[in-house]
Amino acid sequence: MAGGYQPAEYQSAGLEDRFTRSEAPSGACRGRTGRFVFLGPRHASTLNLAGNLNGADFSVGGDVVALAEDKFANLKLTIAPLTLQAFTSKAVPGLKGNLSTDLTVHLKLSGDDIHLQQTGLLKLEDFSWQSDGVDLQQQAVSWQGQIDAAVVGGGLKDASLDGAIKGSQTQLKLGDVQQADLQSLSWKGKIDATMESLQHNGALQLDKVRWQDTGLDVQQQQLSWNGGLTVKLPGQQLKSLKLDGKVAGTGTQVEQGSALQLALQSLSWQGNVALDNSGKAAEGDAEATAQQDLAVTGESLQLEGLKVHNRKVTSDLLMLAKISLQKLKFEQKSGSGDDGMRVQLAETALSGIVAQHKKPLSKINSLQLRELAYDSRGM
User: Fold this and answer.
1) What share of the chain is helix, strand, coil (3-state, %, to 5)?
2) pTM value?
C-alpha cells in the first residue's frame, strides 16, 4: 500500500536462543516480547519493549521518529532494581549500587540541538564507591520531579530542575582520619541554570550531621535552610552571588582536642548575603586588585543554650542562655577608593551569662545594647 506502513513483529526468543546462560556476556539483555511499527520518515513509530536485563525487569514504550531530519521520542522507561556493577565493574571497579526508574522521557534532536524533558522517579539504593582513599556509602537516594534541558550548537543553553531529592544513611571517608556522616537529607525546590547563571529557590534539611578529623569532632542534630540563591558567572567568572532566606539548627556540638567542648542548643538566622565582583581595578594600576563588595543584612540572629566546657577542669567555662541580634548590617569593600568595613547593629540582647573557672567568676542576668556602629572605610 503506497504511503502506508508495514507492521514488523519482534519476538525476542531468538535472542534468548543465541545466548545460553553460560554464554551470555555481562550485561546481556534477555527480552520477552516486543513490537515495533515502522512508518514513513516523518511519522511516529510505535515502540513497545519488555524484557529482563541482568535479572532486572524493564519496559520501554512510546512513540519515536528516528528517520526524519528532526527526530524525537516520547518514551516511558521502567526498570526494576538493576545491579550497576554488572556494567561498571571494568571501567569503575569500586562502584556498586541498585538503580530503579519510573520515568517519562521526551527527547528531540535537530542537528546539533538537543531538547530533553524527564519526569518521574529515579532511585539508587545500596550505593558505594571506593577509589584512591575515598570511600562513599549511601543506603538510598532518590529524585522525583521534572528536568528540562536544551543543548544548542553543542553547548548548554539552559536547564531546569523542579522536584525533590531524598537521601538516607550517607557516609564519606577521606583517608584514615576524615569522616562525614549524614542520617538523612531532603531537598525540595526549583533550579534554573545556564552556562553563565544559576538560580535556586527551595528548602534543604539535614538530620544528624557529623564531621570528624584529627582532634576535631563536629555534630549537628538538625540543620535547615529555606530560601533563594542567585549566581552570575559570565565567561565562567564569578560576577555576583546573592543568598537569602532562613537558617535554623538544633543540637550543635564541637569538640576540639581532649579538653575543649562547645555546645549550642539552637540557632536561627534570617537575612541575606550579597557578593559583587563586577567592579574593575583602576586603569593604569597593574598591582590594583579587582573591586569586591560584600554585604550581609540580617533581620535577626538568635543563639540559645551556649556552653563552653573544659574537660580538664570538669566545669563549664562559659554559659549563655540567649543571644539575640536584630537588624544587622555588615559591609566590606576592597579594591576601591573606599576600602574598609562598616558594621551596624540596631539591638543586641544577652541573658543568663555565667563565666567561671573551677569556681564562679561573674554572672550577668541580662545585657542590652542599642545602635552599635563601626566604620573603617577611608581610614
Assistant:
1) 5, 75, 20
2) 0.80
Euclidean distance between CA atoms 322 and 364, whole angstroms = 12
State the average pLDDT over residues 264-287: 78
* pLDDT at residue 14, rounded to an integer: 30
| Number of H-type helices and E-type strands within the chain | 2, 18
Cα–Cα distance measured from residue 10 to residue 4, given in angstroms and rounded to the nearest whole number: 19
Residues 154-186 have pLDDT tens digits of 788 999 999 999 999 999 999 988 999 999 999
| φ/ψ of residue 89, rounded to 5 | -60, -35
Give alpha helix (H) positions in 132-279: none
If phi > 0 it is left, if psi is from -120 to 50 it is alpha, else beta; for residue 15 that is alpha
CA distance 354 to 173: 39
Least Cα distance to 188 among 201, 200, 202, 167 occurs for 202
CA distance linking residue 375 with residue 379, whole number of Å: 9
